[in-house]
Amino acid sequence: MKELEFVDRYRIEKGEGFRLKEYDPEDTHDLKKDDAKDLLAQGVKRLSELQEKLYASDRWSLLAVFQAMDAAGKDSAIEHTMTGVNPQGCQVHSFKAPTSEELDHDFLWRIAKALPERGRIGIFNRSHYEEVLVVRVHPEFLKTQRLPPKLVGKDIWQQRFEDITGFERHLARNGTAVCKFFLHVSKEEQKKRFLERIDDPAKNWKFSMTDVAERARWDEYMAAYEDAIRHTSAPHAPWYVLPADHKWFTRLCVVGALIATLEKLDLAFPVLEEAAKAQLGKARQTLSAE
Ligand code: ATP
Ligand code: MG
Prior knowledge:
The protein is of the alpha/beta class. The chain has one domain (2-289): 3-Layer(aba) Sandwich (Rossmann fold). 47% of the residues lie in helices and 12% in strands. The protein has helices at residues 33-57, 74-81, 100-103, 109-113, 134-137, 139-144, 156-173, 187-199, 209-215, 218-232, 247-263, 274-288, and strands at residues 11-12, 61-68, 90-94, 121-125, 176-184, 239-243. Strands 1-6-5-2-4-3 form a six-stranded mixed sheet, with helices on both faces. Helix 1 runs parallel beside helix 11 (247-263) and helix 2 crosses helix 11. The protein starts with 10 loop residues before the first strand and ends with a helix. The relative contact order is 0.22. The model has no long low-confidence stretch (mean pLDDT 96). The site of adenosine-5'-triphosphate has 15 residues, from helix 5. Adenosine-5'-triphosphate is lined by residues 70, 75, 94-98, 125-126, 130-131, 134-135, 141, 208.
């Protein structure tokens, strides 16, 4: 969609030399909140048309990965962008700290089980990237994975990047379009949102003390995100580093990116073969003669 093509500027297909500090969390591409409303409605409509074709043609699937610091707006971005989409064609999966059953398998096991079927849009609220983000910032989580000690060396993050890259390439080669979102919120804005969660009784449930503990490791997280984006960006599995200080703008970008990804697939409704068309003609005759 032409009006949303500006989202290209946040897409990273080649990670080499990527620097997070070159991306401004406050950016709104000179748009105003009021202009965004109409644009979002148009985008949601377009997305819903594309999703119908995706479903009808039943060849491709779309995997959209959402990663972010707490209160960056993952949940609301998912909610607002998928509103127009037929729920039957869409599945959302949230990844929490792994269960003991999950820890008994390799780290991609639970991910593979949750992948979207052909024709569907799969949304990952957190993902396999936690394995090179939270686990990297908290090496004690790595211990709970009970990997054979000789397999855990200083190359482990590099190896995980390679495995993730290989996995996503495999998905792309088998008909899953992958796109990944990092909702890039500033530390200042996160503080503001945490304070709102504390001060507004209706938002208290969203607040957790562990979020504050993670905030204290902000710089380590940013370094981990930067390294992950450097090593796992690819043309078939790009990262979108989206400004997240203005939620209305983030949503617009997510919709724009999903549209761009689906438009590249050249989706079309299936065309019936001659024999099937003839059968339709017969069915019409039978119904009309009733
Ligand atoms: P909300 O934004 O509503 O708080 P959330 O996604 O933060 O939702 P929580 O239940 O608060 O959900 O947090 C899930 C936690 O699980 C996060 O802290 C995340 O880092 C952690 N987690 C996810 N995957 C892994 C993993 N592979 N290893 C360890 N921790 C993980
Ligand atoms: Mg949380």
